[in-house]
Amino acid sequence: MPSAGEIREQVQSELERRKRLAVPAFAGGVLYLLSSIIISSTLNGAPTVGLLQGLKPAFEGQANPAVSPRTEEVKFISHHALPLLAGSLLAALAIGALTLVLLLLFDATRFRRPETWPVARRLVLFGGVAFALVSVGHQVVGAVETHNFAVGHDHTNAAVERALTKGAANMVVQYISLLAGLALAAGMITVMLGAQRVGLVPRWIGILGIFTGLLIFLPIGGAQLQIVPAFWMVMIGILLIGRWPNGDPPAWEAGESRPWPTAAEQRAAKQAAAQPATATATAGVPAPARPSSGRAAGKRRRKGRGGR
Fold this sequence. Notes:
By secondary structure, the chain is mainly α. The chain has one domain. Helices cover 77% and strands 0% of the residues. The protein contains 13 helices and no strands. Helix 7 runs antiparallel to helix 8 and helix 8 crosses helix 10.
């Protein structure tokens, strides 16, 4: 159990780190979305090979044509290597900012809940750094391989596959990207669950953060769905700078766990608050007078006549 002095020191340290990371987190969200737009818009302009175009050499009796139907696609990627590399650099900067934010959240969570899984920090650190580097390395390798294909004389299907996916360098980059992305996603999900549990982030931000980790590892949906990680990073930047609409979550200032109430607890609190108000409103209303019974009144009248 930390002392009051240790709590004050921790809260002050977290406040300084929040101030330093607020702008990078906000900018990281913008850069991540911009990166997705640049890369997807560039690749959308690449020539596509339809089913009939792909089967045309086979119809002509060529099992392994000298010029693959995908030759123009590889040359297009080679000629547009610069925007693809620029997009990957922006993504690397965004992942770097994300890694620093996750490390802050992990450290703050572990101080308030020491039983937090310690491996999550190493997963975030390794996964974040490696994933940022490999995002750039993948484009560098792709630029070199597609350039060699474009200026070379071997344009067969095997050469296309080597240039895009099956080359030795491409295979190494793909395996590193898989491991790094998996580590980052697992670390991010663990950190967000812990931060939500101790009350450092609102519940919906925690859920959105978990979804963000999955989208970074599995970039599905193109630039349209990648707006989710960008939006999450912008919201985290607003939270870190201390401009959250409802104020900072209490766990930051308290230096201890302040879990968010569940839906059932919130309903119970509302009911408890409503009951005293109802009791107070009804306390000042006099109880209605009970009407006298007709039978009792008749008895009193008969008794009066008999007594005369």
